[in-house]
From TrEMBL:
Residue ranges annotated for the Xylose isomerase-like TIM barrel domain, each copy included: 104-290
Name by which UniProt lists this protein: Sugar phosphate isomerase/epimerase
Listed InterPro entries: IolE/XylAMocC-like, Xyl_isomerase-like_sf, Xyl_isomerase-like_TIM-brl
Superkingdom in the source lineage: Bacteria
Length: 318
C-alpha cells in the first residue's frame, strides 16, 4: 500500500525529483484482495503561475480601459525563468496541468501564443485555465467596459488552448442590483466563451461573493453556463470550513492555497479543506497555490502542498 509513481518512461522518481513522463498514482489492494486497484493522481494536480511569481519576477499589468501595451515590470524582482519555461518545469515535477495569470503573459501576439501552446504540448501539460486578473462586472460605471475587455481575452484563451477562463465576477458589495448586473454580463460572456470552446468560471473572491449564499445565487441564475473555481484562501474567517463545504460540491476547479506561518504549512487547515472538498463531492484538480516566503524556492512550497494532498488520498485508500 501507499503512494507510488507509475513509470511510463524515464527513471522512477519520488515527490520533487525530476521524471518528465512519470505519473503519480495510488496503488492499493481491493477490499476482497482481488488484485490491485490503481487511482491515478496525475490529473489531480495543477500549478498556477502565481505560485512562481518570484521565479518569474516580471508582470505585465493589462487593464480595462488602457489600450497601451503594458511594459514589463519587475514587480517581484528580476526573476530566474521566463513564462515559456514553465510547462517543461511542471512536467519535470510530474504536474501536468497549468494555470496562467493574465499579467504573466509577456505578449499577446499570435506568434507568441502559438509558441507557448507548442511548449505546453511538447511538455504534455494541459493549459487548464487562463486567469483574467482585472475587471469588475458589478460596478454600473464600468461593467460594460470591463465585460468587453474580458471578452477580448477569449481569443487569447482559445489560442493558448486553455480549457477554462476565470474572470472576476465583481468587487461591489453584494446587493441585489450588483449581483444582477454581474449575472447579466456573465451570461453574455459565457455564450462567447462557449462558442470559442472555452469554459467560463468564476471564483469565491472579492466583495461580491463573500459567502455561499452569493456564490450559489450566481451559479443558480446562470443555469450551469458558468462554472466555479473554489478557493481555500479567499474566505479566511470564522465559519470558513462550513462555508466552503456549501460550495465545493459545485466546484469544477479548486485553488488549493496553503496557509503558511513561521512553522511552515498549516497542515491541519490544509488537510481539513481537502477532506471537506472530497466529502462535498469535488472530483476536479487541485491547483497548488503557494504564496509564502517560508520556502525560498517556490517549487519546494508547491511540492510541499502536493505531498500533503497526496497523503490525504493515501489515508483514504487504507
Amino acid at each position: 500500500m501507499g503512494i507510488e509513481l507509475w513509470q511510463q518512461e524515464g527513471s522512477l522518481s519520488i515527490f520533487g525529483l525530476i521524471s518528465v513522463q512519470s505519473r503519480l498514482c495510488l496503488d492499493y489492494l481491493s477490499p476482497k484482495g482481488m488484485g490491485s486497484l490503481v487511482v491515478d493522481l496525475s490529473d489531480r494536480f495543477a500549478v498556477s503561475t502565481w505560485s512562481l511569481h518570484r521565479a518569474l519576477g516580471a508582470t505585465y499589468p493589462y487593464k480595462p480601459g488602457d489600450r497601451a501595451y503594458p511594459a514589463r515590470q519587475s514587480t517581484y524582482g528580476k526573476g530566474t525563468i521566463e513564462l515559456i519555461d514553465v510547462p517543461q518545469q511542471c512536467a519535470g515535477y510530474s504536474i501536468f496541468r497549468l494555470e496562467i495569470c493574465s499579467f504573466h503573459l509577456p505578449s499577446l501576439l499570435p506568434s507568441y501564443l502559438r509558441d507557448f501552446r507548442k511548449a505546453t504540448e511538447e511538455a504534455g501539460v494541459k493549459l487548464q485555465t487562463l486567469l483574467v486578473e482585472d475587471g469588475d462586472l458589478s460596478n454600473p460605471q464600468t461593467a460594460q467596459r470591463d465585460a468587453e475587455w474580458m471578452a477580448g481575452w477569449i481569443d487569447v484563451a482559445a489560442a493558448l488552448g486553455a480549457g477554462n477562463m476565470r474572470v472576476i465576477a465583481g468587487k461591489a458589495q453584494p446587493t441585489n442590483p450588483a449581483l444582477t448586473l454581474a449575472e447579466t454580463h456573465l451570461r453574455r460572456l459565457a455564450e462567447l466563451t462557449a462558442a470559442a470552446g472555452v469554459r467560463l468560471v468564476v471564483e469565491n473572491w472579492f466583495d461580491l461573493l463573500p459567502g455561499p449564499v452569493e456564490v450559489n445565487r450566481i451559479l443558480d441564475a446562470l443555469h450551469g453556463t458558468v462554472g466555479l473555481n473554489g478557493d481555500f484562501g479567499n474566505w479566511e474567517r470564522a465559519g470558513k470550513y462550513e462555508d466552503l463545504a456549501k460550495i465545493m460540491g459545485r466546484a469544477e476547479l479548486c485553488h488549493a492555497k496553503g496557509r503558511y506561518s513561521a512553522a511552515g504549512l498549516d497542515k491541519e487547515d490544509y488537510v481539513r479543506c481537502i477532506k471537506l472538498s472530497n466529502s462535498a463531492g469535488y472530483q476536479g484538480p487541485f491547483t497548488l497555490i503557494y504564496d509564502s516566503a517560508y520556502h525560498q524556492d517556490e517549487w519546494s512550497g508547491i511540492l510541499d502542498e502536493r505531498d500533503c494532498i497526496a497523503s490525504v488520498f493515501e489515508e483514504k485508500s487504507t
